[in-house]
Here is the input.
Amino acid sequence: MISLYIDTSSNYLYSGIVKDDKLVSSIKKKYEKDLSKEALPKIIELFDKASITPKDLDKIIVVNGPGSFTGIRIGITIAKTIAWALNINITPISGLNAMAISCNTNTYKMPLIDARRGYVYGAIYDKDNTTVVKDSYIVLHELLDKSKDLDEVTVITNNDLDINLKKEKYDPDILKIVKHFEESDSINPHLVNPIYLKKTEAEEKAGL
Here is the structure.
């Protein structure tokens, strides 16, 4: 089994190729305004480093949200293009779920992405990565209120958020993420859509 993982839901490119339960090539790099330009060439380099071609792929796993509107579209477009060309399906996953899976703690887990103006994209998972509070676009203090009755909570984030809880930086465990979703259902590339959670600015102005 050879799987390609793609996450461009922030200003980081997280991508890797897993072959027979081994991470054979990967990239974890922060980009500012160059993500759209750099993502595809860097992903192509992963195939060279792994000494395989895209035709060898059995599965594509892509984060389809939540996060940066532009970033999410970049990853989905790359995944859909490769999948369509190879006639294989895609497993879309939550980036917040991936953050929880990567955190090796026996506490409740609260992955957070700063959505500005006091809002976050966030969720709460238990130590087994089962959903306690589903992925939400929510005011930070409201999500924190939902965690008050939980024993111990670890926040996972790469953002500078003022929270009086134990915090861990998000460092994706690509092998662990891929293995978690390797047996998950895949869907036709044309059916993979972004999960923004938050309305776009145009939708908000139009009152949609």
Q: What stands out?
A: The CA atoms of residues 85 and 136 lie 33 Å apart.
